[in-house]
# Entry
Amino acid sequence: MIRVILCDDHGLIRRGIRDTLADSGDIEVIGEAGDYTELRGLLHQLGHKLGKDSPCDVLVLDINMPGRSGLDVLHVLKDEGATVRTLIVSMYPEDQYAIRALRAGAYGYVNKGGEPASLVQAVRTVAQGRKYVTPEIAQMLVESLTAPVTEQAHQKLSDRELQTLVMIASGKRLSDIAEELMLSPKTVSVYRARVLEKLGLTNNSELTVYAIRNGLVAS
# Structure
């Protein structure tokens, strides 16, 4: 039986994922968390209980969460030398986030809008210690190796700067972003300023237009 831990801040989404995996017959969800703090406690608790370095075979992790994002969690796990294999599930398009997640240490990337069978296949693949990539991601990886090096401006943003850009473009105020990310409004303002400078933009309206044109948020 493949042991899975879910981490997503939306209970309804967790339930859908849990039910999808349970229907497979060979996958069991042994724990759920709504944010990084809960996840950290759960990993420690289950690891101690089971007496194993990795308390689960696969960690299914959302990329957009309050506080530490999924990308932040990947970096933390990597820095701590954690052996847990992580599968990212996200509502964001693969062409904007998949490569970034894989570079941060993820074993795979699945879009929440995809077929349930794809999620099951991804969990099974990652549980075997193999990377899971869709044909679209595989094509992007090939192109990144063979095409001339040309980066879009937002690809030069840090993970937190990209997260700030997406949230502003989604219509959230800086105060709301600060509360959701558990940061001070001043810190969020610094991230916004860096994003504007790196993208050569001047205001939130231009940020929103840029994000829509580049598929970072839905129009």
Observations:
- The beta strands are 2-7, 27-33, 58-62, 86-90, 108-111.
- DSSP finds ten helices and five strands in the chain.
- The longest helix spans residues 36-50.
